[in-house]
Amino acid sequence: MRACLIAFVLAVSAPAGWAAEPPASKAEAQAAAGDPVAAARARWERSPHGEVLRRIIPPNLTPAQLPEPQSRGAHLTVAYCVQCHNLAPPAMHDADKWPSIVERMLPRMQGRGNRGELMQELMAGVRAPSAEETQVIIAYLRRHAQKRVEADALPEANASRAWASFTHACAQCHTLPDPRRHTRAAWPGVVARMERNMEWMNRVVGSKRDPREPQYDSAEIVAYLRRHARP
Question: Which of 146, 156, 173, 190 meets the CB 3.0–4.6 Å disulfide criterion with 4?
């Protein structure tokens, strides 16, 4: 399994007492009236940087596949996040990490990121959420985030090459999953999908594998996950 090299890329339950989502804003109602995913794709086609945006996150998730797809949090996540990249699953990160990730996206969406004029070009035509909408998005992503697992608490921690390969390879792109998240039968397919995702993010179409990239033995990782998976 190859390492995820992109530096630009950028489920826990909700804590008791979280407030219900407030009513929709005018901006999101306007977005919901159309198809924000299709609108983003059309903008990318017109942009000289469209391929860069398209490659940030693999196109594996549709709005209907989000948890609580009819909630305001899901609608806002789609309306704003797909402007810049394909839809990311809330389980990509843990609940503690999502707030800082969303906050980091805001200046980029406003064309004030760390890439100067290039960022302005990348974000041309992009709308940023209001402060209130941002909090709704963060609450939604946290509610459906990946449950955080510390690498040292995993089976075989610091005692096997398989553990090292799994933790190093997977933590590059998302929060480490608990091996018990999937069954023994399911893990091979999950790992294969992750390999395709890494292929998508790391390489322009038609390019070849760089031998300087770190290499991981996917069979070894699958064997590790199956050893410690649910039956």
Answer: 173
